[in-house]
């Protein structure tokens, strides 16, 4: 009776309800976990089999005998498009343990078009190199050591200041390139762009350029490629009087001699104390190109030495005298000796000719005598 009452009580039903609620909750949680795991597994499997495409930039490598040949005309960097399984593509992107190269080992000097190749990538990947081919110039290699010249615009220096001797952090550099370009190498320059109205020493890191005589930039490799160029700038407050020295500039007419004179004997030079201490005279170039007769030239005096800012006066008048070049004593002796040899040779020919005539006369006389004797003999016989 008591047991039946217990089963019929509210407490019993509440306990039963709680039990089934817990059981249902456990079941639902278990199913959700299975579903989540199944979904994750599907995503992971999908990532393994899905494809991916990426485009990378990478350095181009050349397979060539670099000790013997110099190669030009190729790009430093190329693009590579990689397609395939996502995991392999991502691995290639992250590690980049592959290379794109051009095989030039069997090629001789000249212009060649070659196809680029790749190595280090999985065979399951599809690779496209951009560009697929390149054109290169292969030349015999040559190396030369050359001094560095620093160039700048002196007009950018402030009034009342002067530049000292410009210099670079590297006095000499090594230039490597095709033999024909190295043979045409004239100078290596560091172009320093001074600020306007510069009034203090200026230094900057600049790239070097290799130039030929016409100023054309040569396609060569300079080591080091950059230097620190410096232009010392000082206050130009000193002045000094120095004599002028007139010198010929250019090529005059053959067999002509030139002499110069001017009423101006000395000039006043302005500049730094250091520059003026080294200056004892001022060379003034006077052009003689195409000058065939006496003339008068107005020559402009321009500062050309480091540390010199101005020259007073700025222009001088120069008298140019033109005369026939005198034959030197040595040349006269040579000409006299040549004439004597010619006269001696002519006299010898005449003597030989006279001897030949005498010989012919003697021979003729002997023949006549023989003929006479023969005739007498014949007469006797008769």
Estimate the global geometry from the Cα principal axes: elongated
The CATH superfamily of the domain at 142-235 turns out to be: YbbR-like domain
Question: What's the main sheet like?
Answer: 9 strands, mixed
Fraction of residues in H or I helices = 25-40%
- Encode the helix/strand succession as letters: HHEEEHEEEEEEEEHEEEEEEEEHEEEEH
Structural class: alpha+beta
Work out the number of β strands: 23
Number of helices: 6
Q: Which fold name is given in CATH as the topology of the domain at 142-235? A: RNA Polymerase Alpha Subunit, Chain A, domain 2
Amount of beta strand: 35-45%
Could you tell me how far the N terminus lies from the C terminus, measured between alpha carbons in angstroms?
215 Å
Region (Disordered): 329-382
Pfam families: YbbR
Organism: Ligilactobacillus agilis
InterPro entries: c-di-AMP_regulator, YbbR
Briefly, what is this?
The chain is of the alpha+beta class and 382 residues long. The protein is built from 6 helices and 23 strands.
